[in-house]
Write a structure and sequence with these properties.
There is one protein chain. By secondary structure, the protein is of the alpha+beta class. 26% of the residues lie in helices and 44% in strands. The chain has one domain (2-113). Helix 1 packs across helix 2 (19-27). The protein starts with a helix and ends in a 6-residue tail after the last helix.
Amino acid sequence: MAYERAQTILNQLTQSKNGANRISCMLGLKKNFVTTDNAEKVSVAFSFKAKALRKINSVYIELNGLDLYNVTFQRVYNKMDVDLGMRLPHLDEIETISNVYAEDLKELFEDKTGLYLSI
């Protein structure tokens, strides 16, 4: 059930029937995964290689209780930990937009990242 709901989110993001494949081709997808906190909450997060505005390289999309989406644009990178003497993953939240309609997901993604999901 969660997989189908996540596929629906990706399809709505790309406005196509093959959302995961389109994102993978257009952005050079690094990772994607589905998280579910309970039966009422589904989210999709993915990281990509493409160079986006404001160094965004990760997006988190969550279906909220209003049947709208909360979209978080992030930058994930490795940061040097002086105490441990090694690089550790670090996440900067760049911007979060709440209560986004499904038909506005694609335009929002393209405006915030400068990357296109269709040719």
